[in-house]
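Sequence design from tokenized structure. All designs in this work follow the same two-part layout: the structure record, then the generated sequence. An example of the structure record is given first.
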């Protein structure tokens, strides 16, 4: 079949539904609901300087971080878009203390999927007009359909994801996602309200020139990470590295995926498990990384194989172009794991 030059996301979803052998259209409806919520949040993000939605909302989330008004707004929009349509049976959000069971009008929800979401990533950047994002992750439930979901439906390894993606509310708004058949990126035409396939089959370059890490934490990193930063700073002819760090995982990842690069939020003596949340941030981004030919690790183990113990758990996170991530694993092995089973962060 002849492909239209710019296929819409709606057309793409219908055309690719056949990739799922037992598909009943549920996953397609789910992506459609995310597409809708993304447009609503995008509209609000674009008004951020004009209406009273910048600044803190006055509450703390489960991780003790102060919630921005837009965090709360995005959380509500995504939860409503996914629950009102009874597309899924459960949802967990970075902004909610516990998971939500969606039981249906007569307690008869037969849906198979649960969604885990970081509704607004990089929210400290909203007040200063810097790109933010949304990250989502989809799993098939473990418990039988028709019953309320349990914690076991959410504490699944990242390898079990059936889909994951993000929306970046940037200079243009994009939705990038994968259902396990590569990664595709869609750009929103704001005047039509339509997403178009602008970045088909996105792949990490084997290597790149960008390293992204909060170097302000340098003194607290493990020896391996310190040595790796120094290696990047040497910045020689065959290694023309440059630092880029936005402070929104979605935006940093998106840039590195296109240009080639590495993102690191390692453990430190200040944050023993790093900062990023395994279920809402590391796993979906790791799924996309691997689908795009990259590597995602905690410095030693494959992220997607970590067994989650609790909803809001954190994990050290390194992802990006395969050659660059391999180097970090090498450095960690040589300088941090030499005499111990765990990475020692310096104090
Ligand atoms: P969130 O806004 O969802 O809490 O996530 C913020 C995360 C991530 O997006 C970003 O890469 C990282 O925090 C930045 O942390 P530092 O300010 O410690 O560098
Ligand atoms: Mn986040
Ligand atoms: Mn967030």
């Amino acid at each position: 079949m002849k492909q239209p030059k710019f296929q819409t996301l709606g057309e793409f979803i219908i055309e690719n539904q056949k990739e799922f052998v037992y598909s009943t259209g549920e996953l397609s409806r789910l992506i459609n609901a995310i597409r809708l919520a993304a447009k609503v949040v995008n509209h609000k993000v674009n008004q951020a300087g004009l209406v009273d939605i910048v600044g803190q909302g006055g509450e703390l989330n489960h991780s003790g971080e102060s919630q921005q008004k837009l965090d709360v707004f995005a959380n509500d929009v995504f939860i409503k878009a996914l629950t009102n349509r009874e597309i899924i049976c459960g949802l967990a959000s970075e902004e909610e203390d516990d998971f939500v069971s969606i039981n249906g009008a007569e307690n008869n929800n037969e849906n198979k999927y649960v969604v885990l979401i970081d509704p607004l990533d990089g929210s400290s950047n909203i007040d200063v007009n810097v790109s933010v994002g949304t990250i989502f992750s989809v799993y098939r439930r473990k418990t039988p359909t028709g019953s309320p979901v349990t914690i076991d439906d959410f504490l699944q390894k990242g390898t079990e994801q059936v889909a994951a993606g993000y929306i970046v509310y940037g200079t243009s708004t994009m939705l990038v996602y994968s259902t396990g058949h590569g990664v595709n990126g869609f750009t929103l035409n704001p005047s039509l309200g339509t997403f178009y396939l602008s970045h088909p089959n996105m792949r990490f370059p084997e290597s790149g020139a960008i390293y992204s890490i909060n170097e302000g934490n340098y003194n607290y990193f493990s020896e391996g990470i310190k040595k790796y930063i120094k290696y990047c700073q040497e910045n020689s002819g065959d290694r023309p590295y440059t630092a880029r760090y936005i402070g929104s995982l979605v935006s940093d990842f998106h840039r590195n995926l296109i240009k080639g690069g590495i993102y690191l939020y390692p453990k430190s003596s200040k944050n023993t498990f790093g900062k990023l949340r395994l279920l809402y941030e590391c796993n979906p981004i790791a799924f996309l990384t691997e689908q795009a030919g990259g590597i995602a690790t905690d410095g030693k183990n494959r992220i997607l194989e970590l067994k989650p113990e609790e909803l809001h758990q954190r994990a050290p996170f390194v992802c990006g172009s395969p050659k660059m991530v391999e180097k970090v694993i090498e450095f960690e092995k040589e300088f941090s794991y030499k005499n111990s089973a765990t990475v020692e962060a310096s104090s």
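Helices lie at 9-16, 26-46, 69-83, 223-234, 249-259, 278-291, 322-336. We note this feature because it recurs in several other targets discussed in the main text.
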